[in-house]
Amino acid sequence: MKSNFIQKIKHTVLSPAPKGYIALLSVALMIILPVSSCKKSFLDVVPDNVSTIANAFVSKTEAEKYLFTCYSYLPTETDPTYNVGLTAGDEVWVEDPAGHIRPTNVLQLPRGFQNSSDPIANYMNGTRDAAANYKAIRDCNVFIENVSDVTKVRDLDIDTRERWIAEAQFLKAFYHFQLFRAYGPIPIIDKNLPIDASIDDVRVKRRPVDEVVNYIAGLYDLAAAKLPLSIRNEGSELGRVTKGAALSMKAKLLVTAASPLFNGNPDYNSFKNKDGEQLFNPTYSAQKWQLAADASKAAIDFCEAQNIQLYTFPAPTTPLSQTTMTQMSIRNAMSEKWNDELIWGLTANNNIGYNSFFQSMCAGQYDFNNADAAKSANRPLMGPTIKMAKMFYTKNGVPINEDKTLDFTNIAQLRVGTHDERFNIKEGETTARLNFDREPRYYADLGFDRGVWYMANSPTKTDENTWWMKARGAEVGQSSPIPIAGFYMKKALNWHYEWATVTYINYPWPEMRLSDLYLLYAEALNEAQGPVADVYTYINRIRARAGLPTVQDSWSNYSINPTKYTTKDGMRSIIQRERAVELCFEGHRFWDLLRWKTAGVELNGNVTGWSISENSPELYYRERSIYSRHFVIPRDYLWPIQESDLLVNQNLVQNPNW
């Protein structure tokens, strides 16, 4: 099993230290705690504990530990109770009446409990399930300042020095991006101020959106120039950033900045600093989309030159059907560790404890003619909603409400799985209409009642007569919680998971993979130029891996809107749907809904699921309302700044309507 540097250092801090790690633990605590645990305003830009900082740069070994500290603030995406992008969106729902997990913080965002007195997921202060991004930036500044001084860390060669500075510049850009995505115009902390800085200097102001974006993009450019093309020492450096990661994250930044939330948004025409400085540019710019498209294409070209490619499942020694092979290519693009599609995988805070907690949310009990085994399942609390299940295409590659050849009017209509459908649905078993005639990603990504769930430990060693799911009422037992809507995040569970021994396989969180980059490019290019050839090319590459016809073929032959793909508006809708399906459960959709300004529609209304406590299919397959989401327009498009911070720094202004 490949290790990585961040996983090692975080394990020593967060878990009982293995025998060989005691020294590393003491050093890690010395580096991390004195520098970043002081109780001061989130925008403290004056370093403290100067003597400790000086000691951190006496040697290469000590300096590298400080670099690990800069990495340690990366988000904990493998824990759904921290992952805003997943938990606050409309893909999944969490219900925990028995108190198996913390019923607080990020889980409360879609319930309407965000506030300005003690904000949930406070990315500035690092409270209530978020990293302290301004502390992270301060530590990055300390590192860059000291390692840039050639009189310090004298045993550090020039190439390593330049690489480490570039890594810190990348992280500094990423932490600014985390803040920008949530708050919009933010204070830019380019350098830490000296200890004797005046009060006026310390009271920094928010900077206009365009200035923030240009600053972050510039940092990514600086980092990309000196970062390695790829990770060579995979045994110790997996998870550290590369040039491909920098180029790709710059593309994501520019696509975000070009999107409706930040590009000529009239909701913020009157949003200004206290001195009257306008924080949002009121004029829409199509050029921003072109810049984003150019950056995305540059990132794609570079990544492909480094042999990063859409993942395809290698042929196993035991033959599998093409149906299962396609599904495994889709599933493993997310959960197969360090696969060929991964551009940047997060490993900070991603030790086996966090990762297994996430996967336990996904792991259904696979039943092979064994109802008693199903009753002992360790069932998850989080699961996809019916809305998400409806999002996937039909087998013809168009939305279920657009397919002119297939009728999904009654999604609960009962139907029996046939022999030809045996690799998707258990032959001879009854399930809902919604589960039939769907695209391969539906069966790859979702676990559902009577659905087939192939795993590496298949009892037949093949996908014939393999695991399948029983998910109704008494079949699963009442002592274990089950997903509230009746669906499972199958895609997020590594296929080597052993349900009998509850053995999870750790994998890096896919912060950026090639399909995401393809979709960003197609979106930006469509907005800049309309549906030109490359828009179709890169969408169709993803669809081909998913076993679907091209956009042109699907809509021309099967859609009630056959010319939809020929217009910018039509392709915008198609691209947004592709992002929802291709990247489901990877933490992107919530942030996409914000930047598209569609969250007001998508994140309000009822969450629905099947009647999971019922035993018969007639009663189980009844769509019921579980909860009503709350998203206040336009207030909730930007995070609130904590009120106490506004009192400490009177140059700051609150986001509108908070």
UniProtKB/TrEMBL annotation:
* Keywords recorded for this protein, A-Z: Cell outer membrane, Membrane, Signal
Gene3D superfamilies xref list: 1.25.40.390
Q: What is its main location?
A: membrane
What are the RagB/SusD domain coordinates in residue numbering? 341-658
Organism of origin is Mucilaginibacter ginsenosidivorax
**Residues of the SusD-like N-terminal domain:** 129-253
Signal peptide positions are none
Protein name in UniProt: RagB/SusD family nutrient uptake outer membrane protein
Which compartment or compartments is the protein found in?
Cell outer membrane
GO CC annotations, alphabetized: cell outer membrane
Q: Which family does it belong to?
A: Belongs to the SusD family.
Source domain of life? Bacteria
Give the matching InterPro entries. SusD-like_N, SusD_RagB_dom, TPR-like_helical_dom_sf
